[in-house]
Specification:
The protein contains ten helices and twelve strands. The protein is of the alpha/beta class. It binds adenosine-5'-diphosphate and magnesium ion.
């Protein structure tokens, strides 16, 4: 059962490094990662992340900010036109220099991805049980088809579907049930890290909440790490421990999830949190407010701070001076010049 997977005792084939001391290094550490498509489109620029076992990191940002590129980069699943630099350390092992065979072993077993929109891409002509069994057979040479099918049934139960649904074809399932199948597939090889790219975006609100609770439960039960990607900061604040907010390929704000949601230090973080108020939260009674414009095309980034053309509190200097992440109080960091100013506040624009 996947429930036996722990930080200190992962199954042998699932662990990138069995000899490492407990708790050190982190499950995932990303340092200064850049991804450039076709030599001219810098979709991810100098991103750093850290996820410990049992920790849930949310990555927020509007469409086009580089979230999916980052997720795919973590397992080198990008097209060959994408050039990567930096470090991606999974249990201390460098994914970018990993040999092909090792990379195949690490995918699914070390870390697995629930791809954005994946529930629409289940194979229409295969029963879902067989589709869940496939990675198990691929990754475990000793697994028999019968054992893999049994395991697929267990996984379906784990994600709240009756074992009998293994016989169903994708079109016989609802959107929420298909997403549960995708999560079961992601769990199939007992990964230590699960990356879920917009796992609830296509679902209605009730089903969205069920899937989020399911993901939370699975992470808690199995002590895996989670990276959850969404444009909805409220969803991430409810589900995750920490948040990284991405804009134009960079992390512009990071910190404890609830703090970032409640009082972001970067104007972009504030705009995102105002756009997605939490239902029933008296602290967010402000009317949701859209941020005019769109994130920039990475092939034509504005100079200075890339957010300055949309920023309600930009200074003249923001058009020419880029900002690095800096300490922003507590455990937060933000890439905004106003973080250093005593009255770093754009309340005139958000209240
Ligand atoms: P997000 O997931 O935040 O919406 P993406 O990572 O999908 O962002 O995209 C980031 C940027 O990279 C976008 O400008 C997108 O057009 C560009 N991009 C994504 N995939 C490719 C690709 N295969 N080739 C060239 N550009 C791409
Ligand atoms: Mg995406």
């Amino acid at each position: 059962m996947t429930a036996t997977t722990t930080t200190t005792g992962p199954e042998p084939s699932a662990s990138p490094d069995l000899s490492k001391p407990v708790g050190d290094p982190p499950l995932l550490e990303v340092r200064n990662l850049t991804v450039t498509y076709g030599g001219t489109v810098p979709a991810v620029r100098g991103v750093g992340l850290r996820v410990e076992a049992g920790q849930k990191l949310g990555i927020a940002g509007e469409s086009g900010c580089g979230k999916s590129t980052l997720a795919l980069a973590l397992l080198r699943l990008l097209p060959t036109t994408a050039k990567l630099t930096g470090d991606i350390l999974l249990d201390g092992e460098d994914v970018l220099t990993m040999k092909w065979g090792r990379l195949r072993a690490v995918r699914w077993a070390g870390a697995s991805i629930v791809f954005q929109g994946a529930m629409h891409s289940l194979n229409a002509v295969h029963r879902v049980g067989d589709q869940i069994a496939e990675p198990i057979l691929l990754h475990n040479a000793k697994a028999t088809p019968a054992a893999a099918r049994r395991r697929a049934g267990e996984l379906l139960e784990q994600v709240g579907l009756p074992v009998a649904r293994a016989q169903a074809y994708p079109h016989e399932l609802s959107g929420g049930q298909r997403q549960r199948v995708m999560i079961a597939m992601a769990l199939a090889c007992d990964p230590r890290l699960i990356i879920a790219d917009e796992p609830t975006t296509a679902l209605d609100v009730m089903i969205q909440a069920q899937i989020l609770r399911l993901i939370e439960q699975l992470v808690a039960d199995q002590d895996v790490g989670l990276i959850m990607i969404s444009h909805d900061l409220a969803v991430l604040a409810d589900t995750c421990d920490r948040l990284s907010v991405m804009y134009a390929g960079r992390v512009v704000e990071e910190g404890p999830a609830r703090q970032v949601y409640a009082e972001a230090r970067h104007p972009y973080g504030r705009a995102l949190s105002a756009a997605f108020p939490r239902i029933g939260d008296p602290a967010s009674r402000r009317a949701p407010r859209g941020l005019p414009g769109d994130p920039p095309d990475p092939a034509a980034l504005p100079g200075g701070c890339t957010f300055h053309p949309r920023c309600p509190v930009a200074l003249d200097s923001c058009a020419t001076e880029d900002q690095e992440l800096r300490e922003a109080g507590g455990e937060r960091r933000a890439a905004c010049v106003l973080v250093d100013a005593p009255a770093a506040d754009d309340s005139r624009s958000t209240s």
